[in-house]
Amino acid sequence: MEQEIKFILERYRSGGSNRYTCPNCGRKKCFTRYIDIETGRYIADECGKCNHESRCGYHYPPRDYFRDHPGQSQTSSLQPFLVNGIPMVLSKTRKTAVKVPTEVHQTEFYNMAWAEAAARRTSPFRTWFESLPFDAQRISQVLAEYYVGATATDIVVNGRNYGPAAVFWMIDEQGRAHDAKFIAYTPDGHRVEGWGNSMRSVCEKTKTGPQLQETEKVLFGLHLVPHYPDRPVCIVESEKTALICACHYPEYVWLATGGCGNLQPSKLRPLTGRHVVIYPDSGEYDKWKTCMEKSQHKDYAIVDFMEQYPPNTDIADVLLDAEKPQTEAQKLMNQMAADNPVFAHFCTALDLEPFE
Question: 0.90 exceeded by the pTM?
Fold first, then answer.
């Protein structure tokens, strides 16, 4: 029996009046929302797709939304019919046939040999990461476990060559590679603004490998969860942060959402029965707290520690800053603050910093 088709992505209106701010990347007029084809109403603010597929990739389809919100009704009296095998439905308002994309779970995946080949390449990101003040053996283990790789070609942005981009594979708990995110970095570990890509997009453009219309997003590092059944699971936003935390706190399994809007209930299902600790970036605590409250995950804690820092600061920033060697002036100032609480309060109130 054909599945009843009820929802479509809203068609573009002249001037982009029905394109909204993406809940993931924050770009304006790039988010297309799903509508109920019977009522013409939107489903939910977060239910839609970002037009920036390679740079953002956010997609929260109705299938996942209603699965995450079982109390919401999705009934419709409209019945589909087929034209050349394509699901169609008659619009009550326009009396015309509307093509409706069929949503399916990802059934084709990328060969893990690709991930292994990419992991043998180096990149500016890997060089920077290996220079961090952690145990060298632990750094190598983390890079290997997470299949951190590099592109085969250099990335050139505005005429500047940044070398190969880092490749972060999205592998599920069954060891299947859903996709890979490509991010270019400068030699000091910062992202190259204005560039990003994905394995799905590259395969589509080059006509090589699986030709997937979309990929089912999973948490970065999810494949490690079954390997460490006794370790608590921690979730952060960026892949880089997860890797740094994995070096600093190896007693946990560190996962990443890949974006502030990607903490979705559907991605938490593979973690059922595991204790999960959530570490939102500063300024994102309330948003992630709401996401976790809407999810059906029972055993979790969400940490508000980062809220004392400036917006968009993550736990990796704090960890790396703590690893920096102190200057003599900093050591002297810290000692004076420890010996004299009044001096410590004075320094904090005036935001004083030592100088050489």
Answer: no
